[in-house]
Structures are given as C-alpha cells and as structure tokens.
Design goal:
Layout: E1 2-7, H1 14-26, E2 31-36, H2 52-59, H3 63-75, E3 79-84, H4 87-96, E4 100-103, H5 111-120, E5 123-127, H6 133-138, E6 148-153, H7 166-175, E7 179-183, H8 189-196, E8 202-205, H9 215-219, H10 223-239, H11 252-257
Helix pairs in contact: 1-3, 8-10
Length: about 260
C-alpha cells in the first residue's frame, strides 16, 4: 500500500489538489491522503513568525471541501483519507468514510484516540515520530488488533538519510504484526529500503512542483519518483510469490531440452 500524502501541499487550491490526485493515479498509486485541522484551534508557536499560520489558513479543509476531494478521488478509483488533529476533524472524516484514518505522529501518544478509532474505522494507521520509547511501547497493547497499522517515522522535515534510524523500524517489525514506514527523506531510497525489509504500508509526501510555497512541497517526491516507487513495490510483490522448492513450469523447457545438451556421446 503506497500512500501519496498530498497533505496541505495544494495550498487551498482545490483544482491543484485534483491535479495532484490525478498525478498520483497516473503514477500507479491507489491511495491519497490529506490533513484535516481547524486553524482556529492552532496554539501560538513558531508558525506565527515563519508564515505557516497563513498557509494553514489557506489549506484548511472543511467538510464540504474534503467531501469534494474524497468524491473526486473515488470517481477515478482512488482511496482518499486524511490525518486528523482534533475531535471535529475526526468527526468530519468519520462522516465521509470509515475505511481509513491516519493518527499522525503528534497525536500518537493519545491512547484513547487510538482506542476510539479502532472501534470506528476499518483501518487505523499510526505514525510513531517524536515518541519516546515508553510511549512507543504503550502501543503494544494494540498489536493484536487486525485493523491497527503502525509506521516507523522520524519527525523532522526534511529528514537526512543519516537520521532515518531504521533500528526503530526493525524494533517495530519485531513487535507488531502490521507495520510500515512514513518517510520524510528526499527521494525514495528510504521507502525502497523499507519495502525491501517487509513494510506493508509506505507513506511519502507528494507534490507536482517542489517550487510551490510551503515546507512540505520542498522535500515531497514528484510524480516520476512516485511512479518509480509504485513500480518497485509491484515488482517486489511479484518477486515475493511463493512457488515452492520444486521445478517451476517456467523451467520445464530448459529441464527437458537443455540439460546435458553439450554432452553428446
């Protein structure tokens, strides 16, 4: 499962959001994700001085806007869902579709939110960035829940390769059934490494133009990179077919006609 996280990269322009959705589809992706928040609930912080508060206001998705993007995605065969950041946006997502919910890293400490989500949604995806070890271990109580999916994540934007810390990924792999990776590194090498080591869900920030305004647009992967990632994922899934230890049908020609062919007696 490859998730193209459009997030707020569309900057409030729904036409641009739809172009990003169709670009994700053309790259072979089947899941797109946005972020639902209410800028009125944003606490004071560094975003007040670096322009992000204004961008958040522009990129705000209310029920009507999110519903429009959800229906557009559905009309072209894509699953669309979102990260939620408060009770109101939780209810918006739930009212539109209950197939997927994303609990972002900054809310992953909220065990009650996760419990509630497991009851309300078919699939609950939780990122683990910026969690202390004790908080990560608190999530083990959900490891046997079939609809609980946990993603290794390092919450820095962008992420340097040297800080990917896949030791944590392998710890998650050892302790949880459904595991994956949410990556903020430039390019797709981090995602390829995660797929190669068994990740079943990959999430990467996605854009159509790295020159667009906003921090996330700068390190998000482009359509050609998303296509390469989807192609690699499909190839790995095919190569993972278990065909047993016996002679394969594809080998029978060589078995019957080529064995010992230069051993004329």
């Amino acid at each position: 499962m490859i998730i193209a996280e459009i997030g707020w990269n569309f900057l409030g322009d729904l036409d641009l959001a739809k172009k990003m959705i169709i670009s994700a589809k053309n790259a072979g992706c089947k899941h797109v994700k946005f972020q639902l928040w209410n800028p009125e609930n944003l606490v004071p912080g560094v975003w007040d001085n670096d322009g992000r508060r204004e961008i958040y206001k522009k990129a705000y998705l209310d029920y009507e806007k999110y519903f429009e993007l959800y229906n557009y995605s559905k009309s072209i065969g894509l699953e669309c869902f979102a990260s939620i950041f408060d009770e109101k946006t939780y209810e918006i997502l739930k009212s539109v579709n209950r197939k997927y919910i994303k609990i972002p890293s900054v809310e992953a400490y909220d065990l009650n939110l996760i419990k509630k989500s497991l009851n309300d949604f078919e699939n609950v995806i939780v990122s683990t960035g910026a969690l202390k070890k004790k908080e990560l271990d608190n999530l083990k109580q959900f490891k046997d829940e079939k609809n609980f999916h946990i993603l290794h994540c390092v919450s820095t934007y962008p992420l340097d390769n040297k800080n990917c810390n896949f030791e944590k990924f392998f710890y998650i792999k050892k302790n949880f059934k459904n595991f994956g990776y949410s990556g903020h590194a430039r390019g797709i090498y981090d995602a390829i490494y995660a797929i190669s080591n068994g990740a079943t869900i990959i999430e990467k920030h996605f854009t159509t133009n790295n020159d667009l305004e906003g921090r996330d647009n700068k390190f998000a992967i482009l359509p050609n990179q998303l296509k390469d990632l989807c192609d690699y994922n499909f190839a790995v899934s095919e190569m993972s077919n278990n065909l047993g230890l016996e002679l394969q049908n594809a080998e029978k020609d060589v078995f019957l006609n080529y064995r010992g062919r230069f051993r004329k007696k």
